[in-house]
Amino acid sequence: MLKTTGLGYWYQDETNPLFQDIDLTFEDGQSYAILGHSGTGKTTFLSLVAGLDKPKAGDIWLGERSLKQIGLTNYRRHNVSIVFQAYNLFTYMSPLNNLLTAMAITGAEHAGDKYFAKRTLNALGIGEDLVERNVQHLSGGQQQRVAIARAMACDAPLVVADEPTGNLDEDNTKEVIDQFQQLAHQQNKCVIIVTHEPDVAARCDHQYRLENKQFVKLA
Amino acid sequence: MNFFKRAWLNVWAKKGRSVLLILVSSAILMFVLAGLLIRSAAVKATDQAKADVGATVTLSANRQAAFKKMQNSSTTSKSSRPKMTLTPVKLSDATKISQLSNVKSTNVTSSTTVNAKSYDVVSTSSGMGSSGGGPGGMKGKTSSGDTQIDGVTATSLTTDFSNSQSKITKGRGITAADKNTNHVVIEKNLASQNDLSVGDTVTVKKTTGKKATVKLKVVGIYRASSTSSSNAGPMSTDPSNTMYTSYTLANSLKGSKYAGTADSVTFTVSNPAKVSSVKAAGKKLINTSSYSLSTDDASYQTVKASMATIEGFANKIVWLVAIAGTIILALIVILMIRERRFEIGVLLSLGEARWKIVAQFFTEMLMVIVVAVAIAGAGGKFVGDQLGAQLVEQSTTNQTVSSSVSGQAGGQPGGGMKGGNGGPGMQQTTNTKKAADTNLDIQVSAVNLAELGGFGLAITFLSIMIASGGILRLEPKKVLIS
Ligand SMILES: Nc1ncnc2c1ncn2[C@@H]1O[C@H](COP(=O)(O)OP(=O)(O)OP(=O)(O)O)[C@@H](O)[C@H]1O
Ligand SMILES: [Mg+2]
Questions:
Q1: In terms of CB atoms within 10 Å, which of A30, B184, B212, B269 comes out highest?
Q2: Secretion signal: which residues (chain B) (predicted)?
Q3: B55-61 and B291-296 beta bridge pairing
Q4: What's the whole-model pTM score?
Q5: Residue A38 contacts B where some CB pair is shorter than 8 Å
Q6: A84 lines ligand 1 (CB under 6 A)
């Protein structure tokens, strides 16, 4: 369970933060969509939740411990998987080695288990013919699925994604969202997706809109 | 070690880039190796020079003091013509000096002339001899004979023989065992002209006293040095008319009062660097108003100076190339890191420690450098050979010019190996020869390769350290929010 208390952030102007006094709770086994106009601070919010940056005000809690206490590097290694719009993968590796590398760095339970990594990839539609191919020779949708497979193969209870379907066509988008839903419901992870596509948001369990420096829950 | 595997995957997947990096690194390391090779060759050559060239301290009459005395006496007594008297060196003094530490060997030199009796001397018939009156003119003026007798302790200790400019061709040279014998070593031309061979006897006539005849037994035949014939000057007789004997025989030919004396005594110093300390210690043992000790380590100094020049230059090459190489590699790595910031961002977002990312880059460069060291090791000898040959040529020419100038200006005290006629000019010729003979022996040794590996490692390490500032500062958020 992830919780924010009094969370606030600004870049230059402290008197005009992107958002402030944010108290939100994200439960395990649920998926959350964050909508909002461009430039409102969705990515910035996600970078705080992903442990890529420190909040200017307030705290983020994972269970009983704050991110400060856990340490950001430690938090990124063990508690969160990040899926971005692009550039998710090591371009000089195969999908298989991408997974094995991430599993090794994060010290995942199945680290070093080639067959586990292959099964995970296969389950997301990356067949035997693709697992050993260089990822640069995969399509955008396939690459995004490898990134999701990587999140699945690692043990982190939290998965955050910034516009994960931004580069994908309708079919691929549908498939990728299905897989995020699987992550939440079958692996009991907490999934937070930033998107500007209402269709994508609608398929998540919960929706928030970031406007006027606040997160508004949509019915 | 996960970063190690990543490094390998990267180097392997980006073969083209890796090959390019290997080429750049090889070029850098090849120059480093060339510098290292020249440096170690220069060190070796200097050591060799110490052993080979050998420096000497010579005990002889103090000409300066004698000259002063002559001047003083000429001012007081105007009637008689002033005469410069040189006191012959006492062998007892020489024995004392020879017992000093660092004195390797002692060569007593005593020269005189005799007249041929049972043989004909070689007359100078070479091209240069035709000008002027020839040797005949000189003979009448001085009381010298037509045959030069060079009395020595051993021929092998003389400069001409130790430089291999003169060579024993038949029989043997004069050794310490020939002391108090009538053994003689004659020149090849003289021998063939008179049909003399080892075991024969020649008869000479003294130029002093009652001009008695003396029988000498030929024990060896030598070939005279080419330089002494071309440099001997118009006053001397043909070098073929020089015979080597024991200094005791030369002394007895001079006359009985010369027993236990010598023209000069040359001490070979085992370590050329110790020449001045031997000279200082020797000075305490002799009467410096009658005798003087002079040093000749010019050959050694010449070699040392030219090698020091090369060594200094090689050192500069090594460091300049190492520094330039580090900067070049650092720039390449910096560019590489910029190009790979997404990869670094993903690594950081996975929670990878920054030092392990630096370690990955270091490992990648190390793999490249290992191959580059091997390539440079193979190619470095070639570059070193070329550079070395060029350097020796350049620095020896420079050194020879400067040393002969200083030699002329300083003027060396006489009494060298060659009796009276060995002036500074002659001495210099020998040095020039020696210096030119000094070659740089370029060889790639295991030590060189180890040194090269060390430099490669240091260059890699430094360039990664310089470039890693980029990795350590990189904000994963900025990379991923682009
Ligand atoms: N490093 C930065 N320094 C200063 N201002 C920044 C920085 N990064 C982002 N901003 C500003 O902060 C605001 C929020 O940016 P953010 O990327 O979080 O928006 P977003 O909601 O993700 O927009 P989009 O939907 O276009 O991705 C923007 O106005 C942006 O210009
Ligand atoms: Mg954004």
A1: B269
A2: none
A3: antiparallel
A4: 0.68
A5: no
A6: no
